[in-house]
Specification:
Oligomer: single chain
Distance between the termini: 50 Å
Shape: globular
Number of domains: 3
Number of helices: 17
Radius of gyration: 20 Å
Number of strands: 0
């Protein structure tokens, strides 16, 4: 048993930073059950660190930054699992902490996740207002922006386009996607600065997502064809998993059940947690199963069983 002084020592911030990086890495590897085990302990440790380092010195700011990041990866995970209320709470707390640090990019990362919560709660005007305000705040630095800056800045346009798609505003969505593509060209490669996965390929993935949000299944499938295998393979697993799920959803909307099942089977073979854990995937499988009479119906039933759906669901 460690001595009392060691038991009461504040969390080591370097070790906490490694834990935050680990959580983002697990997220980008699309391991949702592992995140469920990791995040509660991470949040507890980060909260303890903030309590242990009050004030406004460098250690206090770093502790708040790490807790903000912990809340942000928690929010992103909960959004994936359709736990929108809890995700919104985590995103909002992450945003408050980010503002306390004064870290410009951290604030933008947190704002992007708050905008997601507003979008999922159908507060589209507020979400777009938040995104645009943060774009305007960062805009003056664009000319000499670092790769990290361009990645965070560019992701704001992609989130705004997603919001506009859900709000049925195709012109706004297209303009924001165009701006995001411009920033990606300025960056010049598919990167992963600050765990954004931002670059030209991620812009194309968001073009697919926007088409889905607008209810354009055939348009989403067409946009997906612009994503190259080389570009896709440069992205983290979470982004690739999202791509295949989007392709499946597009085919489902377009009335191509066999192609939808094929995309789901590909996704499952590469990223099983994405298909077996995410409600959006399970709902798609169930919907296809209930309506499909295609040639892949037996494979679809087997997939449904692996996703935990029974014949009576």
């Amino acid at each position: 048993m460690p001595p009392p002084a060691e038991m009461n020592a504040p969390p080591d911030l370097d070790r906490l930073a490694q834990s935050v990086t680990y959580a983002f890495t697990v997220f980008q590897n699309a391991h949702w059950p592992l995140l469920g085990q990791t995040l509660p302990r991470l949040l507890t440790t980060a909260q303890t660190a903030v309590a242990a380092y009050p004030g406004a010195d460098d250690q206090a700011r770093r502790a708040r930054s790490l807790l903000s990041q912990a809340y942000q990866v928690t929010a992103s995970t909960l959004y994936k699992l359709d736990e929108f209320g809890l995700a919104w709470l985590a995103a909002e707390r992450g945003f408050v902490l980010a503002e306390e640090t004064g870290d410009s990019l951290l604030i933008s990362e947190a704002a992007r996740r708050v905008a997601s919560g507003l979008m999922f709660m159908n507060h589209y005007d507020q979400a777009l207002e938040l995104v645009r305000a943060d774009i305007d705040r960062l805009e003056p630095e664009r000319g000499g922006g670092s790769p990290a800056y361009l990645s965070v800045y560019g992701m704001l346009f992609l989130r705004g386009a997603e919001v506009a798609g859900h709000a049925a505003r195709p012109v706004v969505a297209r303009d924001l996607l165009d701006e995001g593509h411009s920033v990606a060209r300025q960056l010049g490669y598919d990167g992963n600065e600050r765990f954004t996965a931002f670059g030209p390929t991620n812009v194309r993935l968001h073009q697919v997502g926007v088409r889905l949000a607008l209810g354009e299944g055939a348009g989403a499938v067409s946009a997906a064809r612009q994503v190259t295998s080389d570009g896709l393979n440069r992205l983290p697993k979470e982004r690739r998993a999202s791509y295949y799920l989007s392709v499946a959803r597009g085919h489902g909307l377009a009335g191509h059940p066999d192609d939808a099942v094929s995309a789901l089977l590909t996704a499952e073979s590469l990223f099983p947690d994405e298909i077996r854990c995410r409600p959006i995937a399970i709902d798609l499988i169930d919907g296809l199963r209930r309506s499909s009479s295609g040639t892949r119906s037996e494979q679809l039933e087997q997939l449904a069983a692996r996703a935990g759906l029974t014949n009576h669901d």
